[in-house]
Amino acid sequence: MRISNLGYPRIGERRELKWLMESFWEGKLEEKEFLSQAQQLEEQHWRRQQQLGVELLPVGDFSLYDHVLDLTLALGLIPQRFAELEDSGSLTLYFALARGARGIRACALKKWFDTNYHYLVPEWEREPRLVANPYLEAWRRARKMPGVAGKPVLLGPFTFVKLSRGYKDWHRALESLLPIYAELLEQLATAGVEWVQVDEPALILDLELRELEAITRAYTYLAERNTPRLMLQTYFGSLTYYQEILRLPVAGVGLDLVHDDRHNIANLEHYGFPSDKVLGAGVVSGRNIWRTDLRAALEFLQYLTGFVTCDRLWLQPSCSLLHLPVTVAGEEGLPLELREALSFADERLQELRLLRAALTEGEEAVGDEFRTADRSLKALATMPGRVVPDVRRRVSALGEEDFIRDLTFEERRQLQAEKLKLPLLPTTTIGSFPQTPSVRSARARFRRGELSKLEYRDFIRREIARWIKLQEEIGLDVLVHGEFERSDMVEYFAAKLPGFALTANGWVQSYGSRCVKPPILYGDVWHRENLTVAETTYAQSLTTRPVKGILTGPVTIIKWSFVREDMEEEQIAYQIALALRDEIAALEREGIPIIQVDEPAFREALPLKQRERPQYLLWAAQAFRLATAGVKPETQIHTHMCYADLEAILPALEGMDPDVISIEAARGGAELLEQLQRYHFRRGIGLGVFDVHSPFTPMEADMEEFLRRVLTIFPVEQLWVNPDCGLKTRKEEEALEALRRMVNVARRLRGEFGK
Fold first, then answer.
1. Whole-model pTM?
2. H/E element holding 743?
3. What ranges do the domains of the chain cover?
4. Nearest to 355 by CA among 307, 319, 315, 305
5. Residue 670: pLDDT above 70?
6. Going by DSSP bridges, is the β-strand pair 195-199/150-155 parallel, antiparallel, or unpaired?
7. Average of pLDDT values for 209-225?
8. What is the mean pLDDT of residues 45-73?
9. d(Cα 35, Cα 25) in Å, to the nearest integer?
10. Is the pLDDT of residue 668 over 80?
11. Angle, in degrees to the nearest 10, between helices 16-25 and 90-99
12. HSE-up of residue 133 (Cα within 13 Å, Cβ side)
């Protein structure tokens, strides 16, 4: 029995990779030194995993930005628009693909299955070829470390094709990859690699029979070549075709036995497991942070050994630990009963070591640790705030009328137009403005007690006033207060809502250098105090133009938090929705005419299995309506959503009943436009006209060309003009110039189409 890890948090315990990236981008770090320090960080991670008992160490999972981008470059799939950069240096091209270059659009960002991690979408404009083998390079470096059994981690060919765009025929695309994968794997075998972890999370999707046949041919082809032993690794759910996948000619199959709603387990019980394969048993969670019930996990493993002998069993997380913070150590600010119930990446690996010891040596060998785990889980269940009877009663008393606005969208639209008196193609932003060093410094000083509450409030007000004036000078039609008091769109609300706790250093990579610190939702949630009223009403007092109130929606708060597992998500969503409903009522009483409830995670949270989607879409839309349905008809409700294939949720968008929706479209607008056109979307819509994640100022010609294309699909009366997301990550001068150009374009088209 061996302990295997599928992947480790690459960003670092203190976000070391983030600071390295940003120093390099700012010219403070030379390329050679950047690469050297990044490799040192990777090697530190290897040593740390070794110390925690990992015997099959993932190598090649570390990335300077994104592991899908790494494979895209290794396969030579560089879009033609980057051709002029191909001879400019590997990192110049690499980061241009991720972030864009002057006049060159970056590759699209998309959510990695149903997680909050973003990958860069491969584009097939060329035939793939093996340009480099970074997995071999990583394995060779790892081999120099004593005692390391490196296991290269390679994204499988089927999943790579499923995540890509631009090919004419997916079947031909998959076939074109096979000789290249064979060559890459043969290089690893020749070097002496024993095992390769081939990640195929797409195997848990609802596959068609022809896809299964293509997968079978692909792995049969690879099995006929000189390759290392392949561990076919799946995660994020259960296999669609269990028996057929288990018959593939690979040496092992990894199964998620935590997040599969027992389907993988039921298949194991019914069909067994092949006697000639290794089972990678994902028995501790790679996605949530609650301590494993070690006693229950041990009983399950003892049961599992009835199907698989110990010599063919690897203990591992359910998926890569990329989605967890590094360690609970140092989180002394959390309540004791909560802290002791947590398990981050390092603690997950310790759990695997304890489980193996208990399984091979008997529970008495680790009895103290098991008893500690038992006490911790019991303390969590009874900690203050876990159950609040008044909250439970309010949810149980909800009736149909609580989810329905007084008038239909068509009736509301006229009332809102009369009240707001906005021009054609009204311009606005998504909500946040640049978080400058002075803003971050003031927030940090306030947290440390170096600024009083009054001093901090006055600083925030000065920033709000400055940006209200700037927005008016630029000519924006609907303003925002800028969110200078918010470090993160979920963490800010979690800090003010009962039932949440915040970590000091629980960072998780979202994409590139962008990290988030998901709150911990451990108890019942309710509205104890106003969340946004002071800043929003102050902003509105400074201008005669409408100011939007900006809130984060219930689904996004859930999906971007680490959530309790003792309640259905639907019930948690209703608790959060009621808290937001109270906040929206307070904003409306203060005269705020537009309220935006952001739901960027709505699409990402869509279950991967078709059978689970209708129920999710029902309660997710209902939660949004519960939060927003109490407003007057003339109060305009907006929502915002991020990069996503929206086609599967377009009916649910109608069910949410917003008045206006803004959507990120700058990197993948053509596909989104086709979806909206097919659906005949009728709500107000703002398709992001420039990419806020690129440091390069958008050109007016590009924005105008995009809007003209949109105007061939939607009537001018339906459209809003906005960036594709918040501007908090941009520098002030970048944001201001981009907004000036956006307003110029809107005014030109307004003059033309308003005649």
1. 0.93
2. helix 732-753
3. 2-381
4. 315
5. no
6. parallel
7. 97
8. 97
9. 13
10. no
11. 100
12. 16
Q: In DSSP terms, which residues pair with 282 in a beta bridge?
A: 256, 316
Whole-number pLDDT of residue 308: 93
Cα 598 from Cα 432, distance rounded (Å):
12
Task: Please compute, for residue 211, the number of CA atoms within 13 A of its CA located in the half-sphere on the CB side.
Answer: 16
Q: What's the Cα-to-Cα distance from 378 to each of 188, 342, 500, 567, rounded to whole Å?
A: 48, 13, 19, 16
Q: What whole-number distance in Å separates Cα of residue 353 and Cα of residue 284?
A: 11
* Rounded Cα distance, 605 and 522, in Å: 20
Structure letter (DSSP) for residue 603: T
Helix 345-361 × helix 367-381 angle, to 10°: 130
The residue among 550, 542, 551 whose CA lies nearest residue 471 is 542
Residue 107 Ramachandran class (φ > 0 left, ψ -120 to 50 alpha, else beta) = beta
Tell me the H-state helices in 2-144: 16-25, 31-51, 67-74, 90-99, 134-143
- CB-CB contact of 283 with 258 (8 Å): yes
Average pLDDT over residues 546-572: 97
Please give the C-alpha separations between residue 697 and each of 501, 730, 737, in angstroms, as whole numbers: 38, 10, 7
Query: What pLDDT, on a 0 to 100 scale, did the predictor assign at position 694?
Result: 78
Under 8 Å between Cβ of 46 and 148: yes
CB 354, CB 536: distance < 8 Å: no
Sign for the CA dihedral angle at 393, 399, 404, 407 comes to: negative
pLDDT digits (tens, 9 = 90+) for 273-287: 999 999 999 999 999
Q: Where are the alpha helices (DSSP H) in 130-207?
A: 134-143, 157-162, 170-191
Active site residues: 693
The amino acid that residue 676 corresponds to is L
Q: CA of 412: how far to CAs of 269, 599, 637, 652, in Å?
A: 55, 21, 10, 19
* CATH fold group of domain 2-381: TIM Barrel (3.20.20)
Side-by-side strand order, sheet with 684-687: 548-552, 594-598, 636-641, 660-663, 684-687, 719-720
367 exposure class (CB count in 10 Å sphere: 0-12, 13-18, 19+)? exposed
What is the token pair recorded at 300?
Answer: 């399950």
Q: Which amino acid is at 713?
A: I
Helix/strand/coil for 456: helix
Q: How large a percentage of the chain has pLDDT more than 70? A: 99
**DSSP codes joined into one string, 228-244:** -EEEEE--SS--SSHHH
DSSP state for residue 529 in the 8-state scheme = S
For the beta carbon of residue 683, count every other beta carbon within 10 angstroms: 17
CA distance 77 to 166: 11
Distance (Å) of CA 231 to CA 127, 156, 279: 27, 11, 9
pLDDT of residue 260: 67
Apex CA 434: angle with CA 553 and CA 461, to 5°? 80
Where do the DSSP E strands lie in 278-425?
278-284, 313-317
Among 361, 353, 359, 350, residue whose Cα is nearest residue 328: 350
State the DSSP code for 706.
H
Interior CA angle at 676 toward 674 and 681, to 5°? 155
Identify the helix (H) or strand (E) that includes residue 215.
helix 209-223
- Pull the structure tokens for residue 707: 């809007």
Rounded to the nearest integer, the mean pLDDT of the chain is: 94
Cβ–Cβ < 8 Å for 352, 316: yes
